[in-house]
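To: structure subgroup
Subject: Chain for Friday's discussion

All,

I'm putting the inputs and outputs inline so they're searchable in the archive.
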Amino acid sequence: METAAESVSFAGLLRQFRAEARLTQEELAEAAGLSPRSVSDLERGINRTARKDTAVLLADAFSLTGQLRELFVAAARGRVPAAEVLAARAPGADRAAGESAAAVTRSLPRDIGGFTGRDPEMARLLGTLADVTADGGTPGICAIDGMAGVGKTTLAVHAAHRLASSFPDGQFFLPLHAHTPGQQPVRPADALASLLLTAGVAVQQIPPGTEARASRWRDHVAGKQILLLLDDAAGHEQVRPLLPGTAGSLVLVTSRRRLTALEDSAVISLGTLSPAEAVAMLARLSGRPGLGSPDGPAGDGPAGDSPAGEIARLCGYLPLAIGMLARQLRHHPARTGTELAASLAAARDRLASMRAENLSVASAFDLSYAELSEPQQQLFRRLGLAAGADIDAYAAAALDDTSPEVARGQLDELYDHHLITEPAPGRYLLHDLLREYARALAVAGTADSAAAAGRLVNYYAHVAAAASRHIATWTTAGGRLPPAGPPASAPPLATSGEAADWLEAERPNLHAAVNYAATREMPLHAVAIAAAVGGFLRARGHWDQAAEQYRTALAAAREAGDRPGQAGVLDELGLLQQLTSDYQAAATTLTEAIGLFGELGDLTGQAYALNHLGLVQVDVADYLAAAASHRQALALARDAGDQLAEAVSLIDLGMVQQLTGDYQAAITSYERALPLARSAGSTFDEADALCEFGVVRRLTGDYPAALACERQALDLFRQLGDRLGQAWALDELGRVQQLTGDYQAAAACLAEALTLFRDLGNRHGVIKALNNLGELALRTSATQEAQSRHAEALAIARELGTPDEQARALEGIGRSLLPRDPAEAAAYLRQALEIYQKIGAPAARQVQDTLDRQRP
């Protein structure tokens, strides 16, 4: 049977000589004038023999002379067994190796003096020392995982140097080469041989076989305090045989995989740098300390908004990418941060810019991608096609044309390989640079990219339409289905809460899907998605997003000649313009929608659009026109046999009736509308009717009934998550409470309403809440506050052109001035009276009575 000495290879011999010389692979390569890869390939047996010149250079690096030099060169070339080199060594060689063991085991790579950031991770790593000290039974293990280029090795080496003094029996560094170009991962048996050789164990004492070597290693370090850094592990199988068996030692493991099967290990999953850390790293590595600071060189301003901040952002805050671009700046002193940032932003292929000599970010990603199975690679490529940011298993299934169960399993595998993250349960996200990498693979490598992206857009369109059935849309456009069939699987959305949660989670993706569909010859999908999510976006206050989607969908519908789609989107857009107080645009948009619906013979659509036009007319106090619009809408709704459209028309007509003082007619309208809304199952319209019913009850002096209506309405709006509806109900509830003398409650409700109106951007609502707060202040004798509130309301009302609220504000200012300046107060009251009379508001009588009482 062969002895260990007889079976030693030149690879093992080279490792022992290097260990005894206290050289890293990189240092040996530099001393011999070779590439690190050449040395690595020889040590790992990939190249079993060396060229003559390589062998001579290695012998020179080890300062070998005489017969030993000749035998070493011959063994390197495969002409004599490596064991002959050991036999020819001078007497005492084993002793020398043993004597040097303490020095040899300090084999950590060079630390980085200007290490940047990572304070929480460093604190946790340093804290593992206390755990090792406290644990009397097992060695400490800390697994540091993360995506390619995130800085795992840098962090581990820096931490190892900080911890080294606590491990006097040795600090070992062993690269396991899971992701070294051109190399296979180190086998556990070879890794153990390297560790034993580095520890000073003679080759003759290293047994063959993984288990025997693992036992020898555990025996050698038993009772000692060592720190072992295992870099770039392929998996737990590679790591487990290398672990010490007794307490007192610490093992740091870095890996691109989550080592979930590695027992008893602490885990640090390393993310990208913070923006500030990234800018600091860029400044340090570029050799430009002022980069990103206010006092930096021209073109390099403060971090965040500076070119340095832009470079860091475009690098995705990934240390590998930042380091490569920083070195470009270091080696191009004439180039400014501004120029580099502009070049990077304009690049069609950012990854191509992120390289240094033969290293690149893309090649680092290549190694992670190569580890995947073919189905995992396919899904990863297709994830790069997704228009939005994150994705769940249902959407991934549509994208990959598979089941949610299979997609979920594949996503979890990508997560374990650190190719995606999971920022929220069940939602997966690609890093910006990995997304760009995946998209490039998808476009270059397969012919079905467009089909995959199309399936995803179709999925979003169908599920959004299903969700919209649980959300108040205010129009006929919601729920419109795209032309393609439904996806094979979709999330269950059985309640309004589930629908709202899905719409909020997918909101950015739906927005991206509208844009994608509009530019990829899927116009009907763009229209369907925009229409489906419109009601939700209005209710939650995402008005800017809604407006952008409507404009995109409208252009797509016009290009496709989709006249029903145009009408529906115009109605949605006009309603949004009314809510944002863009009354002229709203009137124009809604008039066009009414005309299109009429040409199409869509009575219900025409009724909704007429009601929305009536709301615009109410806001500008054109009550006669508003009443005509709502009565026409009511007739169309009844002709169409649409109960919900009839209920909406009655609610809106009742609002005009109460504004013009016809309170009994308004009560009748609301009493007819409420059962129709409930019968149609529209919680929103039920709440809307209750809110307006409360108004007319207040105006007729029935405060208990008014309070009950507003509280019911507020509860329903809160159940729906409709922020605008809540603002309406709170505003009116506060108004009733001040009339009943509950000033504290009124102040709280009105303040909350004002905040909601401001947050939503509903300036008409802001005016109403300010006027209500002004009236409340006057009731509590805070005349200065009252005057201030009304003055702010007056300025906005004049800007928007809303006469009714202008008059209220003028009246409020006048009443606040009455105690100290009756003449000036009368001037304001006369202005208010003139407007009230012009628009036919009942409040004119009260103002006239006040003026009459002020006359001598």
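Points worth raising on Friday:
The chain has 43 helices and ten strands.
Strands lie at 140-146, 171-175, 227-233, 250-255, 266-270, 355-356, 359-360, 390-391, 421-424, 427-429.

D.
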